[in-house]
Amino acid sequence: MWAEVTTLPKVDAAGVIITQQELIKDVWRMEVEAREIAREAEPGQFVQLQVPDGAFTLRRPVGIAEVNLQTGSVAFIYRVVGKGTKKLSSLQPGEEINVLGPLGHGFSLQAKRPLLVGGGMGLSPLLFCAAAFAGKADVLMGGRTQRELFWEDIYAPHVQSVYCTTDDGSYGEKGFVTTVLPKLLQANDYDLVLVCGPEVMMKAVAKIASDHNIPCQVSLEKRMGCGLGACLSCSIDTTSGQRKKVCKDGPVFWAEEVFDLS
User: Fold this and answer.
1) Element (H, E) at 186
2) Which one of 23, 201, 214, 231 is most buried, counting C-beta atoms within 10 A?
3) Alpha carbon distance 196, 151 (integer Å)
């Protein structure tokens, strides 16, 4: 198994919003100039955004979706789910926002032929990963309807092939990503599966990858208070019996660390 990604330096930066765009209803892309974070970030890591309003004490954890080293910017694709993210979506280009990161451990980039598997907003951190593999990866994405697969055009420049599934059959193959996954693993020479999305989906994908003897990494999402491992709000049980923190020990783990795949 490949070596773990080392923890990189954390930067507390005053970023400046470059763009803020609604991609589909309640899903936004925010690009922020934060040169030190852009330079240090690894695919799979996240940042903590300080909502610029005194009503919000806790920062909001957001996965890094894109990095542009030329402009020194990082981009986040996020869904509005509450008052905090609603406030984030109201911010305008030119406004400042405090960014703490990059945080956590990212994905392994040592694979020669990876398959990325994502569902819903889990496709956001995997996008940075796709760009880092520079055309070596394929992506399998799932959504409830065609509308949720707006990601296809965003991923297309970075991967060899895009495979889509929808619950209602409105686009791609009808069913879940697990409907298509066994056929893809049999037909291709993938040497690593990277997955992010709902936990039930990740566990099912990890089990299929294990059955095909292919290593798998998963990116967990838990409620995080500090993002630094101090508040213990994101602690989880692992298969070894140890308690670990998603923000500090993850968010990326080898699947067998956190899921029973027997």
Assistant:
1) helix 177-187
2) 201
3) 14
CATH number at residue 60: 2.40.30.10
218, 195 Cβ separation under 8 angstroms: yes
Number of independent structural domains in the chain: 2
Does the pTM exceed 0.90? yes
Alpha-carbon gap, residue 202 to 261, rounded angstroms: 11
What pLDDT digit, counting tens, does each position of 66-119 carry?
A: 999 999 999 999 999 999 899 999 999 999 999 999 999 999 999 999 999 999
Cα dihedral 87→92→95→98 (10° resolution): 40
Whether the Cβ atoms of residue 51 and residue 101 lie closer than 8 Å to each other: no
Q: How far apart are CA 141 and CA 121, in angstroms?
A: 10
Residue 166 near residue 142, CB atoms below 8 Å: yes
Residue 25's contacts (CB-CB under 8 Å, 6 or more residues apart) are none
Domain that holds residue 83: 11-103
- The enclosing domain of 163 has a CATH number of 3.40.50.80
Q: How far apart are the C-alpha atoms of 70 and 177, rounded to whole Å?
A: 35
